[in-house]
Amino acid sequence: MNLHPVRVHRSDENLPREDQLAHKIARVAADPVAVTDEVTEMVINRVIDNAAVAVASITRGPGVAARAQALDHPATPGAAIFGVTTTASPEWAAWANGVAVRELDYHDTFLAAEYSHPGDNIPPILAVAQHVGCTGADLVRGIATGYEIQVDLVKAISLHEHKIDHVAHLGPSAAAGIGTLLGLDVDTIFQAVGQALHTTTATRQSRKGEISTWKAHAPAFAGKMAVEAVDRAMRGQTSPTPIYEGEDGVIAWLLDGPDARYEVPLPEDGEAKRAILDTYTKEHSAEYQAQAWIDLARKLNREHPETTDPANVVSVTIHTSHHTHVVIGSGANDPQKYDPTASRETLDHSIPYIFTVALQDGAWHHVDSYSPERSGRPDTVELWRKVQTLEDAEWTRRYHSLDPAEKAFGGRVEIVLADGSTVVDEIAVADAHPLGARPFARADYVRKFRMLAAGVVEEAEIERFLALAERLPALSVDEVRQLNVVARPGLLEAIPTPKGLF
């Protein structure tokens, strides 16, 4: 890997194009280096993972609305839409599928200087592959690039510190991945990356306070913008330059300002794109920083059942990293995180709620754990309001560690009981993490898909999709176009379709 210095330049400095970060990203995307077998296997895992969480979302409000919009933009050949056999224009298919993938907040993650769900790259890259007519090998290459660029940006440039939503790294990565998929030249990808970034910077109010359904739409919007940016760049249209380093650019006015300095890691020429191997998926449908806490709560449920009764508990204090404390903990100062009537989107960003329910139930379910009946249960509300988070400097340090063996997303919990005793335990990473108690492997991804598809998809369709996905690098153009999951007959037809402008 090479570390590329990035800073703001005055216009009169005339930063050469080849020294601009967007151009360096484009060079990585255009590099024809082979994809390793290990990366290919992980790409297959994540295609299965995305399909799993998408099919579980296709009957939910955001997925229904986004699919309805996409279906109002049919195209031939077009791209597949989760749940149906009708195809749509690729940018709209990317939109609908991106919403379905993100709705349950249940797919893969990478956390460093910034947050990200790199699997959000897959819907736009796959949509373009299906519309244009790419092979499975092309698709694997494109997805490997999307993951590489997003992870590299996330390692170096924080967005949330400046209240910019993390999808600002997704627009450029998806555009780069599409560039690789199509075998575009460096200059075209450069323009597409710049346009994709320019159109996807937004505030992170979508993840603050009362969290709305837009949380699921935000990454889908970035993917849609990436598809459109590539289309414009292929037609010869140019983008604001330099988009990152300009004196009126993203860094100068949205991020660390005119004195900012970053070092962005990117593969050298000829170096394999391996960043997907640094990412990790979710066993539970909740924000990633809650994954380890669900596992610890399940353990405490078994070993200390007395902690599940609010009558026995004086206080629950979760000592954790700064990020966890201020984003999904009590440090966010969002009263909604303690509100039994809060939206599902809000509850899955409330570690006090998540820890309480997992502690009492000894389990976590992507639907039942968020139901109004569950969040409103009196004993749960009583215990929930005894839970607080505190930042711990050591867990913050481990969160930011560059050493994979030390990097942690958990912390320590102290439960003070009414009899004066204290229960203390800790966890560093989720059980499903590569360094966790039960790292996810292919069988786990398949099991997750089967679980989430049950009742939504017929068994024959489940088997058909899995057989295709596991042969991904060998798929023909026609087989790539079949890389979709169709709902069982009658399921979607019974759901009212919202009408808008189209």
SSE topology:
Elements: E1 2-7, H1 21-30, H2 37-55, H3 61-71, E2 74-80, E3 87-88, H4 90-102, H5 122-132, H6 136-156, H7 170-182, H8 186-198, H9 214-234, H10 250-254, E4 261-266, H11 291-303, E5 313-320, H12 322-327, H13 344-347, H14 351-361, H15 372-375, H16 378-384, E6 387-391, H17 393-400, E7 411-417, E8 422-427, H18 442-453, H19 459-469, H20 477-481
Parallel strand pairs: 5-6
Antiparallel strand pairs: 1-4, 2-3, 5-7, 7-8
Domain MmgE/PrpD C-terminal: 284-470
Organism: Herbiconiux gentiana
Domain MmgE/PrpD N-terminal: 20-262
What this model shows, in words?
- The radius of gyration is 22 Å and the shape is globular.
- It has 502 residues and is α+β, with helices and mostly antiparallel strands.
Keywords:
2 domains, 502 residues, 2-methylcitrate dehydratase PrpD, 8 strands, alpha+beta, four-stranded mixed sheet, two-stranded antiparallel sheet, 60s Ribosomal Protein L30, Chain: A
Separation of termini? 47 Å
Largest β-sheet summary: 4 strands, mixed
Unreliable residue runs = none
CATH homologous superfamily annotation of the largest domain: 2-methylcitrate dehydratase PrpD
CATH class of the largest domain: Mainly Alpha
The tally of strands reads: 8
SSE arrangement, N to C: EHHHEEHHHHHHHEHEHHHHHEHEEHHH
Strand line-up across the major sheet: 6-5-7-8
**Strand content range:** 5-15%
Q: What is the tally of helical segments?
A: 20
Mean pLDDT: 96
Q: What is the level-2 CATH architecture name of the largest domain?
A: Orthogonal Bundle
Query: How many discrete structural domains?
Result: 2
Shape: globular
Counting helices, strands and paired strands, the structural category is alpha+beta
How much helical structure, as a percent, in the residues? 40-55%
> If you consult CATH, what is the topology of the largest domain?
2-methylcitrate dehydratase PrpD
Q: Rg to the nearest angstrom?
A: 22 Å
Domain MmgE/PrpD C-terminal: 284-470
Protein name: MmgE/PrpD family protein
Organism: Herbiconiux gentiana
Family: Belongs to the PrpD family.
